[in-house]
């Protein structure tokens, strides 16, 4: 059973272990039971469940890349289309979720959209978990290097500042520092661009007043495009995936499309199309696969549960902890596959050893992500809400239309 082939058995087993771990945590932890607040009947419960599959899919993708690295010494995309696409398609769908949720809020609230609350909530959503992870990376690098400075303090400070902005320069000349976290923060640059450009897009497409405003906003969007991608240019074909979410936001406002999207036929079409994307394409960020993924996502956004697969309690919990799962899995893979074999007498390149470590990592990832969500992410989200309320008390005349931290 190799991660270099199109054999999906390992992926199925990994998902099964993750779902079982999530179910056990829900069974034996009253705290987690109370934290899982979204009922299966909520409007976007299917989207919440989808997150759980996507975040864990990226973990499987990077585990396959690690298998390749251990045998070739190079971090290359898996030769298997399935193991390549399970990560790429997951990221594309994550971007669609972002586009769908926030463009949908704009369509609903219009000029009453609370931009201040939006900005604060994004900061408190991204950074509370990211900062401890960044600290782990820095400590790991200097620990491996024997706590010696190879760059000047000013250079190290500059490198750390870049990491604070979700870039991944090598720290203190440690090669491929971003590899410690599977370079997952590249997607956060795209998220930040979308957040910052959202008010400009709103003024172009929703708050139109005159051609000068439109021209200035378009110029601002281009400037942001250059600034956010100051080290690694943002790719236009990747940004296209946000448009899939925007399209879905309009889709769910058409009752006839929503009604069709909830039919048995739509669910079958969604599953077939998803299998086609995962097995026939080498890329997700291209016109044809993005169109197909947009169709799948629109059906899910319509409320289709894909025959119950998206509303299992264990999957909804995996969706709740998806940011932790996404952000932490690379560091866990690095510890388990590259550092642990240095202190214990086994070889991670051996297929059986690798599979056992991968299975253990699948369970650990859900357990650790559950802890970091409850004790880092959730308090961070609540702190964001308190900050928004404090700011609102200072500006009581400002419209307070419902922009809670996500």
TrEMBL record:
Keywords: Acyltransferase, Membrane, Transferase, Transmembrane, Transmembrane helix. Residues 45-366 form the Acyltransferase domain. The chain crosses the membrane at residues 12-29, 50-70, 82-103, 124-144, 188-207, 214-230, 236-252, 264-281, 287-309, 321-340, 352-376. InterPro entries: Acyl_transf_3_dom (IPR002656), Acyltransferase_3 (IPR050879). The keyword Transmembrane applies. One of its GO terms (biological process) is polysaccharide biosynthetic process. It comes from the Bacteria. The keyword Transmembrane helix applies. Coiled coil: none annotated. GO terms for cellular component: membrane. GO terms for molecular function: acyltransferase activity, transferring groups other than amino-acyl groups; hydrolase activity. This is Peptidoglycan/LPS O-acetylase OafA/YrhL, contains acyltransferase and SGNH-hydrolase domains.
């Amino acid at each position: 059973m190799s991660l270099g082939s199109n054999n999906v058995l390992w992926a199925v087993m990994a998902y099964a272990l993750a779902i079982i771990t999530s179910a056990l945590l829900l069974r034996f932890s009253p705290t987690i039971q109370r934290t899982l607040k979204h009922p299966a009947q909520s409007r976007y419960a299917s989207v919440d469940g989808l997150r759980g599959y996507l975040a864990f899919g990226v973990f499987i993708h990077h585990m396959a890349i690690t298998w390749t690295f251990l045998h070739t010494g190079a971090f290359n995309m898996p030769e298997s289309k399935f193991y390549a696409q399970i990560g790429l398609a997951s990221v594309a769908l994550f971007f669609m979720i972002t586009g769908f949720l926030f463009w949908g809020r704009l369509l609903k609230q219009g000029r009453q959209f609370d931009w201040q609350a939006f900005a604060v909530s994004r900061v408190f959503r991204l950074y509370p978990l990211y900062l401890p992870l960044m600290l782990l990376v820095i400590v790991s690098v200097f620990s491996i290097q024997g706590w010696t400075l190879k760059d000047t303090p000013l250079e190290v400070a500059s490198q750390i500042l870049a990491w604070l902005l979700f870039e991944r320069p090598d720290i203190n000349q440690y090669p491929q520092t971003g590899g410690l976290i599977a370079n997952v923060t590249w997607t956060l640059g795209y998220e930040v661009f979308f957040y910052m450009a959202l008010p400009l897009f709103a003024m172009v497409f929703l708050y139109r007043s005159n051609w000068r405003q439109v021209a200035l906003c378009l110029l601002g969007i281009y400037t942001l495009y250059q600034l956010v991608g100051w080290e690694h240019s943002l790719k236009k074909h990747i940004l296209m995936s946000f448009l899939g979410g925007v399209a879905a936001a309009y889709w769910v406002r058409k009752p006839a499309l929503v009604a069709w999207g909830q039919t048995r036929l739509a669910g079958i079409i969604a599953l077939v199309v998803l299998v086609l994307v995962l097995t026939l394409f080498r890329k997700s960020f291209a016109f044809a696969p993005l169109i197909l993924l947009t169709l799948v996502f629109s059906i899910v956004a319509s409320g289709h549960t894909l025959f119950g697969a998206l509303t299992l309690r264990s999957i909804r919990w995996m969706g709740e902890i998806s940011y932790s799962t996404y952000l932490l899995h690379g560091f866990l893979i690095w510890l388990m596959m590259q550092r642990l074999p240095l202190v214990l007498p086994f070889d991670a390149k051996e297929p059986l050893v690798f599979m056992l470590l991968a299975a253990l990592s699948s369970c650990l990832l859900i357990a650790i992500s559950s802890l970091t969500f409850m004790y880092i992410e959730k308090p961070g989200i609540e702190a964001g809400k308190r900050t928004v309320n404090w700011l609102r008390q200072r500006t009581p005349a400002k419209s307070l239309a419902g922009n809670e931290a996500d």
